[in-house]
Amino acid sequence: MKTPLICLFISAAVAAVLPSLTDLSPAAATLTAHTVGAPPLFTGETIQLTEGVLHKLREASKGESLSNQFGFGNEQSRTNITRQCKILPGDPAWPSQSTWDLFDQLLGGRLLRPSLLASPCYAEWPEFNNATCYNLSMNWLNSSLHIGHPTSIMNPLYAGRSCMPFGFNYTNTCTEGGYPAYVVNASTAAQVQLAVNFARNSNLRLVVKNTGHDFNGKSSGKGALSIWTHWLKDKVFYPSFAADDGYVGPAMKLGSGVQAFEAYEYAKQHNVTVVGGEGVTVGLAGGYTLGGGHSPLSSLYGMAADQVLALQVVLADGRFITATSKQHADIYWMLCGGGGSTIGVVTSITIKTYPQIPTTTVTFNFTANDTPGPTAFWAGVESYLDNIERLVDAGTYAYYDLGASVAERGTTYPGDTDYYLRIQSLVAPNMTIAETRSLLQPWFDRLDRLGIRYTPQYYYANNFHDAWKFAFPQEYMGAATTKIASRLLPRQAYHDDAVRQRNFLAHKDAVANGFSIAGFHLTGKGRAVAPPTNNAVLPAWRETLTHAIVIGQWNSTADWKTVERTSSALTKWMQALRDLGSSGAYMSEADLLEPDLTDAFYGVNYPRLHALKQRYDPTGVFFALTAVGAEDWTVLVEDPLPESWNNNGRLCPRGVK
Ligand SMILES: Cc1cc2nc3c(=O)[nH]c(=O)nc-3n(C[C@H](O)[C@H](O)[C@H](O)COP(=O)(O)OP(=O)(O)OC[C@H]3O[C@@H](n4cnc5c(N)ncnc54)[C@H](O)[C@@H]3O)c2cc1C
Ligand SMILES: *[C@@H]1O[C@H](CO)[C@@H](O)[C@H](O)[C@H]1NC(C)=O
Ligand SMILES: *[C@@H]1O[C@H](CO)[C@@H](O)[C@H](O)[C@H]1NC(C)=O
Ligand SMILES: *[C@@H]1O[C@H](CO)[C@@H](O)[C@H](O)[C@H]1NC(C)=O
Ligand SMILES: *[C@@H]1O[C@H](CO)[C@@H](O)[C@H](O)[C@H]1NC(C)=O
Ligand SMILES: *[C@@H]1O[C@H](CO)[C@@H](O)[C@H](O)[C@H]1NC(C)=O
Ligand SMILES: *[C@@H]1O[C@H](CO)[C@@H](O)[C@H](O)[C@H]1NC(C)=O
Ligand SMILES: *[C@@H]1O[C@H](CO)[C@@H](O)[C@H](O)[C@H]1NC(C)=O
Ligand SMILES: *[C@@H]1O[C@H](CO)[C@@H](O)[C@H](O)[C@H]1NC(C)=O
Ligand SMILES: *[C@@H]1O[C@H](CO)[C@@H](O)[C@H](O)[C@H]1NC(C)=O
Ligand SMILES: *[C@@H]1O[C@H](CO)[C@@H](O)[C@H](O)[C@H]1NC(C)=O
């Protein structure tokens, strides 16, 4: 493949630690790049794997075979494609311990072989420790626990529900499940390049884990080599940045490990605002933005992927590139909205920033007990749907929860009438409390006429960060007791009276069927900006007025049959929302059983996305459930579940076993 790398100059030699292969730990050279349209490289990005370094490795190891394991992909590996099942620990082809040791040395000691997070709860593991286990069990739903661990993910359903702590375990076993075997704790481009090359050349399954938030387990994989991007935390603010697409203005460059709360805080320090999600700990510069990224600011400024001016990426062949609207423009197009884990590992993104913006938030809820009865409750819900078009067009956003039961998630039994609607929270950017109040008045008048009691709590800050921080506390994640499905509800589902009525009845029916709804009223076409046309954001987002996540639930001890039955019922039930108009589903918060998945997640972009996947990752170095090209592979799941239902099994080309 031709890699017109930005002009590079070797400006420093390599460090020396390794006794046998001196000069090669870490295996990297320092390169400084000069390019227009993209900001300077972070220090970690200047440390790269080069042909020169590989040449030295070849000389030092006096053997082609060893050094070949770390070499770049070439034209031949593109044209002579033979896809095989990925290897697992214990296979004859699994790299020897000495190869892993060499790999660690080349990485400068950044290779981890992590124990399972909950292994302290299980006597057969050396980590067994009752006190630590107790601690883990108490904190298991704290996302920070899973983010800070090299392999743990927040929806362990996809890792086979193996090795769960007490209170969350459905069996009493702790096996490796769908978790990676080795992890590169990445801090430089060179480490990422070495890992990508090693995985490609040795036919290892490769995983990229950033925070592990993904709802479909896209950041796990049985027996894989994982690249952990969490510690790529660099941040730089540019008061004026000239991008390749003609944008001239303030911008921020973020290492791909930067999370929402960190980006928001940094933006506040520089008196600007960035587009990020409501979720406090989500990987803003990772899977979130790559997959599109919806935000409390989307109704104003569009999707997170729309903000991207440049990305720095290690591609599947191991080369490090900069992608902008002009340089590697096809890669730029794909990575801005086409999802994580497709053709490369992003090491940083550069995004637009906006001026500081005053923001009001409103939080309130009512349950059936706060109303004269169920009929009034549902009329109150309906009145919300009746106002959504107006609220979105005014530039607002809300995160709402609808369901039954005191637990306020799911129902205790079908037919349960302990209903709740929780507006947690509504965000009115660029509005005062008085303006927000008057915007909401027609809806609140209706609630008042229905005799519904509710107490809206208003909060105003002169900047987005403070309002967001007040309105969105860290959410609980980590159990394996839910399955979600998504539908982007188009304008028609609110504008047209008959369709809106069906939309309302569907909301009601979801709860009657034992599901709950976590919905967002927002649109992906910001009213203060022109939507970009050169990225892969699902076009349905531009017509969306609500992203509805419908949730099916079971308990920790439910067997796989129950899990499967509830999941299938949810997938099937979603037809009620699919029937509200042609649209799609949000890939980052959706159902991997979605029928016609590629169309729902990627829309008209899919043929081009798939062609680019073939072009830049012909052998399938990258794989994640539901990611572009995932349908060409299958996970031979070890749990009593259909293929590709989770990550607990060998990864094979579809049709090969
Ligand atoms: C509590 C919670 C709140 C959420 N809030 C929002 C929200 O407000 N708005 C919204 O749009 N979404 C939200 N999400 C969904 C979120 O966008 C997805 O979970 C997303 O996948 C998270 O990306 P991550 O990098 O943090 O997670 P990970 O699970 O680590 O990664 C997700 C995917 O991206 C890939 N990936 C990550 N980093 C890279 C990289 N540098 N290069 C290549 N591939 C990479 C991974 O391999 C994986 O396939 C939320 C999720 C949760 C659990
Ligand atoms: C292509 O792959 C096949 C099967 O692995 C191999 O036998 C053949 O030599 C390869 N051809 C080239 C040109 O590398
Ligand atoms: C383990 O810890 C729990 C909680 O502290 C305690 O109740 C239990 O007795 C402990 N078990 C053992 C075997 O120490
Ligand atoms: C329990 O967790 C807390 C906070 O994470 C930590 O400070 C403490 O050391 C832990 N205790 C044990 C026994 O692991
Ligand atoms: C979650 O864990 C983090 C880090 O240990 C801690 O700062 C935070 O307070 C915890 N949150 C909750 C709700 O316990
Ligand atoms: C989890 O494991 C413990 C320890 O063996 C066992 O007592 C319990 O039944 C299992 N299930 C749950 C839900 O705790
Ligand atoms: C990973 O690397 C970071 C620094 O980049 C370091 O702080 C952290 O402790 C490392 N984690 C592990 C588990 O080694
Ligand atoms: C911060 O930004 C706002 C809005 O752009 C501007 O009015 C204000 O003067 C700025 N404050 C500082 C300290 O730069
Ligand atoms: C915010 O409101 C002010 C005053 O009404 C207006 O001039 C400005 O354009 C608004 N900004 C955005 C991003 O909508
Ligand atoms: C619901 O609103 C009431 C005030 O009306 C508040 O006291 C309560 O904490 C809220 N409940 C939730 C779950 O937000
Ligand atoms: C958990 O769910 C299973 C299957 O639905 C059911 O048999 C069991 O009684 C439930 N356990 C609890 C504690 O609710």
TrEMBL record:
Gene3D superfamilies: 3.30.465.10. Residues 176-356 form the FAD-binding PCMH-type domain. InterPro entries: BBE (IPR012951), FAD-bd_PCMH (IPR016166), FAD-bd_PCMH-like_sf (IPR036318), FAD-bd_PCMH_sub2 (IPR016169), FAD-linked_Oxidoreductase (IPR050416), Oxid_FAD_bind_N (IPR006094). Coiled coil: none annotated. Keywords: FAD, Flavoprotein, Oxidoreductase, Signal. Belongs to the oxygen-dependent FAD-linked oxidoreductase family. This is Restculine oxidase. It comes from Aspergillus saccharolyticus JOP 1030-1.
